Amino acid sequence: MEKNVYNMPRADISWCPGCGNYMILKSLKDALIELDITPENLVMVSGVGGASKIPHYMKANVFNGLHGRILPPACGIKAANPELVVIAAGGDGDIYGEGGNHLLHAIRRNSDITSIVHNNLMYALTKNQASPTSFKDTVTTTQPLGVTEEPFNPVAMAVSLGATFVARAFCLDTEQTKEIIKKAVLHKGYALIDIIMPCLIYEKMHTFSWTKENTYYLESDFKPHDRIESFKRSLETEKLPLGIFYIQEGKPTFEQQQAIYKNDKTPVVFREISRGKPLNEFLCRFTG
Q1: Whether the predicted model's global pTM rises above the 0.70 cut
Q2: Half-sphere exposure of 180 (CA within 13 A, CB side)
Q3: Whole-number Å distance between alpha carbons of 124 and 130
């Protein structure tokens, strides 16, 4: 596949110069190209925020929804046509904050989608408020004396709830991030990739340099199929581990459990409409 197949000509990119979103965009494009996934077979779902602009800067099918509400339509799109590759991209506020409830149920259902979380460690687009993943003592516009709560640990949460693919990456490491994205997209089931991406403008404590010094990659012989060991490693905070923490293979996906295809390979949304059923009734069934 051509290297520029996902390039969007004349895109007016609004990210700040040097933002980690550029690096994630590169890793994502490279992963999709190496997997030979064509733009017409990909659906990017996003909400509100800097991270949610990523589908606007690449050729693909796009659904841009509400803040914190990107996982329900992503699950519904996959249910409507399981042949599509569905990627939900958003920030830590979008998916862990406003959308935290939807995250829990996407994991529980094991929808066959990939969630890529651009983890800013704050609400960056709205000028530096604490997000669920903000480190303790981080000074923000709404916490001038520093954040008092412990940060939310999405990796530990996902492993504990049985997400079938859980990983953490660092945006600066584009090659490693690309390889993790490739494995997540190929995985049959719900995949969560938490990508640490400190804001260059507002995050003065936990910078790119700090992240580089305070992270390390899981050992090459680490076994991500051992859930208990994966959970133990996800709890490490002195230095944050990077890589693939947990993989569970063979668990039925939401689409398989619903027997969406059965013996008919026609995408279910077209079958339902052809039978005279209202589209909103179908969407309520699979995204509620």
Answers
A1: yes
A2: 30
A3: 9
